[in-house]
Amino acid sequence: MSWSAYFPYLIVMAGVTYLVRMLPLTVFRKEIKSVFIRSFLHYVPYAVLGAMTFPDVLYSTGSLWTALAGLVVAVVMAWRGRSLLTVAIGACLAVAAAQGVMLLL
Amino acid sequence: MKGLFMKGVRHGIPIALGYLSVSFTFGMKAVGDGLTWLQALLISMTNVTSAGQFAGLPLMLAQASLIEAALTQLIINLRYALMSLSLSQRLDKSMTTPHRMAFSFCNTDEIFAVASSQPEKVGKWYLYGLMSTPWLGWALGTFLGAVAGQLLPEFLRTALGIAIYGMFLAIILPPARKEHPVRIVVLIAVALSLLLRYTPVLNQISSGFAIIICAVVASTIGAILFPLKEGES
């Protein structure tokens, strides 16, 4: 990608992300009163991550079957409260194992 | 206050290890999709946000409008506003405005989680330590993925593609298991996401706006049906 096309996006992405993090920490030192806004903000991360995970996770390995194997292992481990790193590694290993099985079949 | 700094550095090590695999995938994907290694590395060094970077990459490559890119980052990263707000109540007096401005650059989900779980209020030395190791891990992983990703055997590369989603699931499933409202909000968001992906016409909507729609609709329904009670964050 050419640098002239790249830089506007870099600046916009980094700038927006920084402002979102910096402004509340620096400017608004009082607690938000609106129950609706607080509730909305509380749910946003879960909604975003849910929408980002499905259905994209199924296409993340180039094969539906290996992705399903990774997904099932990740869901079980995450449900049991394993750490981010453990779940990520577990899902990768499951995908690698599924690929091995598919090579043998 | 080297002791506090080193304590933060130590607390940041597990986060850095987790970031290595995810940012490795980001670097590999960015270069595979057409960025140079330096472009991939600069994104990671300045953004430090997994979901935002993965969502921003296709927009950048498709030369989407800058407004769409900005809105996508805003919606995906809106959660940081809540985290920053929450963390602002737990900072000690050493966190004057310049230090708040410097630290907030690296207030990621995991750094926020560790900082908030400290029994006492946290100060600048601890926070600077806590942000340094994960930031280095995030940058190093991106660099390695960008320059050496193609050296990995094919089966390992495809296996790593799922790492980021494993991490996402590890963030959303434990609270979804404990809290009924979170579970409902996640299910609504997932259902909407599937609808927007597989329905003719609706699947023309770009991925950035699709995430915005899913998040805003699901979170609004959640806020209406299950408003937080006093004392809940």
Low-confidence stretches of chain B: none
Mean pLDDT of chain A: 91
Q: Which range best describes the helical content of chain A: under 10%, 10-25%, 25-40%, 40-55%, 55-70% or over 70%?
A: over 70%
CA-to-CA gap between the ends of chain B? 31 Å
What is the H/E string of chain A? Answer: HHHH
Please report the two chains with the greatest interface, counting residues with C-beta closer than 8 angstroms to the partner's C-beta. A-B, 77 and 103 residues
Structural class of chain A: mainly alpha
Helical segment count of chain B: 12
Strand count, sense and barrel status of the largest sheet of chain B are: none
Shape of chain A: flat
Work out the strand percent of chain A. Answer: under 5%
Helix content range of the residues of chain B, please?
over 70%
Roughly what is the average pLDDT of chain B, rounded to an integer?
A: 90
Question: How are the SSEs placed, and which strands pair?
Answer:
The complex is a heterodimer of chains A (105) and B (233).
Chain A: H1 3-26, H2 35-53, H3 64-79, H4 84-104
Chain B: H1 2-33, H2 37-47, H3 50-61, H4 66-76, H5 78-88, H6 97-103, H7 109-116, H8 124-148, H9 154-160, H10 163-178, H11 180-198, H12 207-225
Helix pairs in contact in B: 1-2, 1-3, 1-8, 2-8, 3-4, 4-12, 5-7, 10-11, 11-12
What are the key terms here?
heterodimer; A: 105 residues; mainly alpha; 0% strand; flat; B: 233 residues; 12 helices; globular
Explain how this protein is built.
The complex is a heterodimer of chains A (about 100) and B (about 230). With about 100 residues, chain A is an all-alpha fold. Chain A has helices at about 5-25, 35-55, 65-80, 85-105. The longest helix of chain A is centred in the N-terminal third of the chain and has 24 residues, at about 5-25. Chain A starts with a helix and ends with a helix. In chain A, about 50% of the residues are buried. The longest helix of chain B has about 30 residues, at about 1-35. Chain B is mostly helical. Chain B is globular and about 60 Å long. At the A-B interface, helix 1, helix 2, helix 3 and helix 4 of A face helix 1, helix 2, helix 3, helix 4 and helix 5 of B.
